[in-house]
Amino acid sequence: MSALFDFNSFVVVVLLTICTCTYVKLIYPAALTVKTGFKGLFWKAARIGERLSPWVGAACLAMGVVTLFS
């Protein structure tokens, strides 16, 4: 089953995308400079990860617990 049809899997994919884009932007900032188009989605995900990092971290922790015990 695709991760886009199951809500829990969709949330995990979104959280992993946010975390990965934030990490890439911190390590190699020139990779995420485009703010429009398809690559702009990754820039926006990195921006969300930078500004809402405590909430994203809490969501990752919660989804990890849900994934382990479900």
SSE layout:
Elements: H1 7-27, H2 37-51, H3 53-69
Helix pairs in contact: 1-2, 1-3
Largest sheet: none
Going by helix content, strand content and strand pairing, the class is mainly alpha
Average of the residue pLDDT scores: 88
**Coarse shape:** globular
Distance from N terminus to C terminus (CA atoms, Å) equals 17 Å
DSSP, total strands: 0
Q: Which residues sit in consecutive blocks of at least 5 with pLDDT less than 50?
A: none
Helix content: over 70%
The ordered H/E elements are HHH
Strand portion, in percent?
under 5%
Q: How many helical stretches?
A: 3
State Rg: 13 Å
Short description:
This protein is mostly helical.
Explain what this protein looks like in three dimensions.
The chain crosses the membrane at residues 12-31, 52-69. Keywords: Golgi apparatus, Membrane, Signal, Transmembrane, Transmembrane helix. It is a single-pass type I membrane protein. It comes from Volvox carteri f. nagariensis. Its main location: Golgi. The protein is mostly helical. The protein has a domain at 22-69. The protein has three helices and no strands. Helix 1 (7-27) packs across helix 2 (37-51) and helix 1 packs across helix 3. The longest helix is centred in the first third of the chain and has 21 residues, at 7-27. It starts with 6 loop residues before the first helix and ends with a helix.
